[in-house]
Amino acid sequence: MLDVESIRDDFPILGIKANGRPLVYLDNAATMQMPLPVRQALQYHYEQVNANVHRGTHYLSHESTKAYEEARETAVRFLNAPSQRNIVFSTGTTGAINTVALGLRDYVQRGDIVVATVLEHHSNFVPWQQLCLEKGAQFKVVGIDQKGDLDLDELKRVVTGGAKIVACTCCSNVLGAVTPVHDVVKIAHEAGALCLLDAAQGIRHGVLDVQELDCDFLAFSGHKLGAPTGIGVLYGKSKALELLKPAWFGGEMVDIVTTEKTTWEELPLRLEPGTPNYVGAIGLGAALGYLEFVGRKEASAYEDELIAYAVKRLSEIDGMHIYGDPIHRSGCVSFNVEGVHPFDLCTLIDKMGVALRSGNACAQPLLSALGCTAVARLSPAFYNSFEEIDAAVSTINRGALMLRN
Ligand code: PLP
Predict the structure, then answer these.
(1) Ligand 1 atom at minimum distance from 202 CA
(2) Is 232 helix (H, G, I), strand (E, B) or coil?
(3) How far is the CA of 280 from the centre of ligand 1 (A)?
(4) Fold of 4-30+295-404
């Protein structure tokens, strides 16, 4: 059992007032709030350790490098990656996926097939689409069934024919649909394709073990689990990372530079050009540690209870349309209330202290498939309470009634 009351003490922001009302923050799929231990780790680093990593011979540089590489080791343990070679720090999920898509620009050739799913956030859709357009490759998009679950039969059909890459989310940031990632990886591999998993949402929902999953790449962002913005992780199998041609060049990622040519540093540094966001990485390490401390399985199970309760309570609202009814919904629920624009609804309830997201959730292909252009999205985290869900639902109800009349 999670002790939500004492967990909330680690998140002072949850106690503020928004527009004069007690804040009910339910936009965690966009960004989760930062717990005190992460802020303390950042403050400690700036006050006691700060110096550029890897390059210096002095005390602070050694200490800073040690802290940065310890954060990498924390990510190794968190994902059960084989070694530090397999963890590349990135700017976030978007940065990680672009590193892979750009890095595979010689690997993907004219006529090749690259597969994504209609569930993808633009981050795991547009980089592949653009790569295909540039290389004259075929970009194929796998659909979903009536309930919003990934259509595995279609995936099987699409990959046979020689797919080179399958890019799939672990969990939709609109429907909350958890995808059968083990099956996706297996289907991709049987077709000889590399498989990249977008774990931006999935990382906080359950325990992802990259060796057990057998995925070739996995990406996630720190700010969705309590770390600062601008930091994330690209996990890759060594062989998969070695396929990547660096897309950004500069200091630290090189081995020998002459006027004629340049050779690259070993992994993972060859994919981390320039001064890395080492303070962000240290914050990320602290956030991963905090999640371990709270209990990853417990936090995720509790979030599933909150989301199931939110779906039940939202369904009681007159004119409510909830998108999808997936086998396993995790992290978020998207909806519209008949006759009310989600932007108006979310703007109005914000005046009453309730923070939800409205818009296309960076998933326009999915919203078109669902037959809408915008949704309201409610996404709890493990520090939210059932009372907050009740408060949000009654505020949504009130807001919808006000806007309809
Ligand atoms: N993928 C999914 C499923 C997401 O939900 C998000 C962010 O909402 C992203 C990718 C992009 O993450 P970031 O903006 O942190 O790079």
Answers:
(1) 3
(2) strand
(3) 17
(4) Aspartate Aminotransferase, domain 1 (3.90.1150)
Coil, strand or helix: which one is 27?
strand
Query: Residue 1 has what pLDDT?
Result: 82
pLDDT at 125: 98
Residue 345 main-chain phi, psi, to 5 deg: -60, -50
Measured between alpha carbons, how far is residue 281 from residues 47, 278, 339, 355 in Å?
16, 5, 45, 28
- C-alpha–C-alpha distance, residues 60 and 378, integer Å: 43
Q: Are β-strands 232-236 and 87-90 bridged in parallel, bridged antiparallel, or unpaired?
A: antiparallel
- What CA–CA distances, in Å, run from 27 to 115, 179, 253? 29, 21, 36
* 148-158 burial: b if 16+ Cβ within 10 Å, else e: bbbebebbeeb
Q: Could you state, in chain order, the average pLDDT of each consecutive group of 10 residues for the chain (405 residues)? A: 95 97 98 98 98 92 97 98 98 98 97 98 98 98 98 96 95 98 98 98 92 98 98 98 97 96 97 97 98 96 97 98 98 98 98 98 98 98 98 98 91
CB-based pocket (< 6 A), ligand 1:
30, 92-94, 121, 123-124, 169, 173, 198, 200-201, 221
Distance (Å, whole) CA 114 – CA 162: 9
Ligand 1: distance of its center to the CA of 94 in Å?
7
- How do the domains of the chain map onto residue ranges? 4-30+295-404, 39-293
**pLDDT number for residue 405:** 75
Distance CA 327, CA 405 (A): 36
Amino acid code (one letter) for 58: H
Q: What is the pLDDT of residue 56?
A: 80
Q: What is the pLDDT, as a whole number, of residue 232?
A: 98
Six-digit token pair at 40?
A: 């303390």
From 86, 124, 98, select the one nearest 268 (Cα to Cα).
Answer: 86
Distance in Å, CA 93 to ligand 1 centroid = 6
Q: How far apart are CA 111 and CA 162, in angstroms?
A: 10
Site to substitute for ligand 1 among 121, 204, 357, 375, most atoms within 8 A of C-beta: 121
Q: How far is CA 302 from the centre of its chain?
A: 19
CATH number belonging to domain 39-293: 3.40.640.10
The two beta strands, 333-337 and 113-117, are: unpaired
